[in-house]
Amino acid sequence: MRIVSYNLNGIRAAIRKGFVDWLAEHKPDFVGIQETKAWPEQVGMEDIEALGYHANWHSATSKKGYSGVLSLSKQAPDLVQIGCGKENYDREGRIIRTDFGDLSIFNCYFPSGTSGDVRQAFKMEFLADFESFILDFRRSEPSRQLIILGDYNIAHTPNDIHDPVRNKKTSGFLPEERAWLDKWYGELGFTDAFRQIYPEKTEYSWWSMRGQARANNKGWRIDHVAVSEGLADKLKDVNHYRNDQHSDHCAVVVDMNL
Questions:
Q1: Which of 38, 46, 102 is nearest to 70 (CA)?
Q2: DSSP 230
Q3: Cβ atoms within 10 A of the Cβ of 147, count?
Q4: How many Å apart are CA 24 and CA 21, to the nearest integer?
Q5: Which residues pair with 109 in a beta bridge?
Q6: Max CA separation in the chain (angstroms)
Q7: pTM summary value
Q8: CA distance 108 to 155
Q9: Which phi and psi angles does 89 have, rounded to 5°?
Q10: 10-residue block means of pLDDT along the chain (258 residues)?
Q11: Distance (Å, whole) CA 96 – CA 184
Q12: Is 110 in contact with 126 (CB distance < 8 Å)?
């Protein structure tokens, strides 16, 4: 099974840049897209549907052209859950759950705190509430296997960011954000799919649009695929498709034996 997490930073622009051809070439079974920046009626989906994908959207209702997630799957989901039940997050289009057998995939777009203190506080509230949401889910359905993928907007370790010293006080690499991921990948029992395969390798998933950052590979690894305990040994490979440029992010491509 091939699973992809991809922040497209606008699906309409990505389609113009060849995203549909990319899907046809790489044939993922599941694609979690973040930052669609569109409502379904604004996007011509015929070419994507012609490739055999079922589309499930969670678009922002707070304003047009903002946020939003879309889950594409070759298999029709057994269940689709939109949002997490908290209006302050759900109106921004941040979470879709899709179930396939005993597997639940959560496609998520975590808030950014880069615009200032108000949004950073919102981000930290989201992290606490999302943790509680997932813990409640695991208690209610303990037999389910989980994949929680998306743009977490956090680089976890100094090996996940090109300049950890200068960025130590920057949103996305703050100590409290990294501590949240420490707990996520520690006490809460999730595994970072990329680090499971490549404990020391340096790869990035996002680059600033400024200063030739992508050309010089000065990036951040902020797009994660987290898997629950029973799935870690099913991972085959994880790659960042840096050269396929539909966005300021790249696709995180996970191959698993499922």
A1: 38
A2: G
A3: 24
A4: 5
A5: 151
A6: 48
A7: 0.97
A8: 16
A9: -95, -40
A10: 98 97 98 97 95 98 92 98 97 98 98 96 98 97 97 98 96 98 97 98 96 95 97 98 96 96
A11: 19
A12: yes
Q: How far apart are CA 60 and CA 67, in angstroms?
A: 6
Stated length of the chain: 258
Contact (CB, 8 A) for 202 and 220: no
Structure tokens at 236: 């085959």
Structure tokens at 7: 């922040």
Active site residue 151: yes
| Torsion angles phi and psi, residue 165, rounded to 5 | -70, -50
Q: What is the pLDDT at residue 201?
A: 97
Q: Which two tokens stand for residue 219?
A: 């990036």
Residue tagged active-site, from 151, 223, 248, 255: 151
- Using CA atoms, how far residue 214 sits from 67, 170, 229, 242, in Å, is 23, 19, 34, 9
| Predicted pLDDT of residue 65 | 87
- Within 10 Å of residue 85's Cβ, how many Cβ atoms? 12
Q: What angle do CA 137, 236, 250 make, to 5 degrees?
A: 75
Contact 77, 54 (CB under 8 A): yes
The DSSP-derived string for 2-16 is EEEEEE-S-HHHHHH
Question: How would you classify the pairing of strands 2-7 and 30-34?
Answer: parallel
